[in-house]
Amino acid sequence: MAVQGTNLDGTERLGSFFQAHQREFNRLQDPDRSVRRAALETFKKLLAPTGAGTVAPDGPYLEALCASGLLPPFLQLLSDPVEKCRELALGIMQAVTSKLPQVGTVMDQVMPPVRARIGVSPVAETSEEVRLQLVALLADSLLPRCTQQPSQAAAQDVAAVLSQVLQDPFHEIKKAACRGIVAGARQCPGALAPHAEGLMKALLQNVAHPHSRVRTAVLQALDGVVATGGLPAGSLTDVLPPGIKPLAFDKAAAVRQLLFSSIAHWLGAPSGSLPLPPPPAFDPQPYVLDLLPLLLVGVTDPSSDIASRTLELAEQKVVATHLRELLRPLQKELREWTVALRQGAARVLHTVLVLGGENVTGHVDVIVPMLCAAVGDEDADVAKRIVSCGHVVGAAVRPAMWVPIMGDELTAPRASAAQKANRLVVLAALLHATEEGGLAAEHVAQIAQIVAGEELRCAEHAAVRTQLLAVVTNLVRAAGPACGPVTLPLLQTLLQLQATPNDVPLQHSAAEVTSALARATGHSSVSSLFSEHLSGLLATATADHAQWVSVSPGWQLFQALLHAAGAAAGPGLEQALPVLAGVVQQEREAALRISALQLVDELLEVPALAATWRRRAARLLAEMLVPCGVWRAGKVAAAVRHAAMVATGTLLRNDLCTQEDLLGVLSGSSLLAVVRSCLEEDYYVDTRRAACHVAEHLVRVAGPALSGEQRRALYKDVLKRLDDSNDEIRIEITGAARQLFASLPPHEDGAEVRELVDGMLVHMDDPDARVQAAVCSALEVAARVRGVQVEEAVRKVMQKHRSQVYCARVLAAAEATH
């Protein structure tokens, strides 16, 4: 039943209460657990009634009861061996203290036994539920009503209990402890201030708790601890910022938002939902450089709401004022082992640069090397963020400030290929953000000379080449017509990139940038651009041709130039042919000789160069192709012969050598002997095939002007190749036979022609129908020229052939001449 006696004065009511219930107080000490429990149930009905129609004691009355000794019997039961008794005793105390106007004196009574149960290690209270009740008594009943400063002893007990229970494994107890810290910081900050550092350390141990609500509660409690003003300076600079830093990347958006709001609150900004303003004694200025970088992480938060809110809290003026000091720790953090820390540092750096604006100009000597060192981070997110930082700097800072620094970075000795690539990435980013026309001529020239330097232009590292192209691309865009005076070095670089082996995308991209350079410098086409600079490019490319090998950058540049120049390469062939002639000499590297002959073959296929080649065909044959076709032992030499035969066949097939020039070469060199030797090639079938092609077009171009001796030699070679082990060669050689028959002079000895026709008739009965058809085609030409001789020869063997179809075709051609 509820406490009655409303007609008595206060003293009588108190005396009546203790007198009326003395037996129940005695029963609280009874050895029998059931008796103690029954007594507690009685007091629960008296002091905390819950039934309908009951009236609970008011606050002043309960305060008077507590002052008269109500609580000690219940406090003794906190160590009762029966869990239910401890729960009932705690429930009564919670009900009583929750109605007290103030709890200053009560805390002196309550805190020692509470500390004895849960404020020591190991914790005496074994029940999880009872421990939660004990913390709730402190957090929800006592501290929110602590309107007067508690005694020093009580404050120590409170701090000890809160610090200890923050280590409890039960998450609800941790949350209750955080509520207690917030309540204590609000109601009696002076009592907690001496213990702020210990509370902070206990809280920081829970920032990685798996429950987001626990992490949120920890942040709220930390806010309260900071607001007490009791943290020493070293804790605010060395302990708190790194301790809460992981929360800046928390997976829960609510945690991140609270963190950034809390930091802004500590720095003196209005914190909206947080109830605690910074106390007057707390001066945030000394800690700006330690806390501001953490706040700036929020500006690039994945949540747009958090990012925009944090941006409002971050003051641009503060960032600009402390820019140099903010950059120093970021240099270290960008080299951290942990990816998350490097990501955070990159985000902060980006935000600092954006907020710094034009003030960044005075710090590029620090920023640019930072970017060069960090842009090669193995984490893609970090690298992308650093590139974005380069864009910010390029947009905010005049090129006059960063071009010399980048020049020093890119020309630094002993830099590795990866470091060069990283520095080129930064230079490309700076140029990307530079407005068109924003580069002075001297800066364009400086960058052009850097990228055209041999160390960068001729680098074998794929990343260096890729980033080099990015730099030239952005330079051409930003400089535009200002590229005119430095077109030559830029062309050298682009051609070197086009010469990159086995990287077709890079080659195509470099060709596209070359077209852009032509447009930027006022040329109507790429050919026009090359025409203007061909001589200078050839001089640069061939400067070291005596030392070339197949992988020499100069050789690769030379090839790319002649390929890319197209029709414009014509005037430069006079300058290029002596170089090519020297390259294909026997003493040079075989791979270089082969690639040179392949280059010649490709250029012989360019229609726009036909007139130029016709003027130099005799020289090309005599000085380059014939010497390379001479037989020498070994497969390497055989490969050179094959390349020489292919180029010779292309020259003759495209009619780039006149009859007069060809006859001059035939009489003044061993051309025919070389071709005949290649027809006998043992190493490669393809060499014999190419030689067949050469023989066909040699006879076609020379025509009846071939001497009888030369023709007779070729007759024998045709018959030999018709007996070749490879049917493809047998088919190919019939082309030479057709040309021999077509160009028969009237005075040619009939016996020798008859011998060739008889030999070919044998193969017109070959089992391979393709061979039959090819031989028939050649004999039809012979029949049109020497009809009587051919008809006579065919009729002699016609009956022996397994099929007379081809014989009939040849006879028809012969009869048509009668």
TrEMBL record:
InterPro entries noted in UniProt: ARM-like, ARM-type_fold, DAAF5, HEAT_DAAF5, TPR_DAAF5
Domain Dynein axonemal assembly factor 5 TPR repeats, residue spans: 28-314
Coiled coil start-end: none
Stretches assigned to the Dynein axonemal assembly factor 5 HEAT-repeat domain: 318-500
Protein name: TOG domain-containing protein
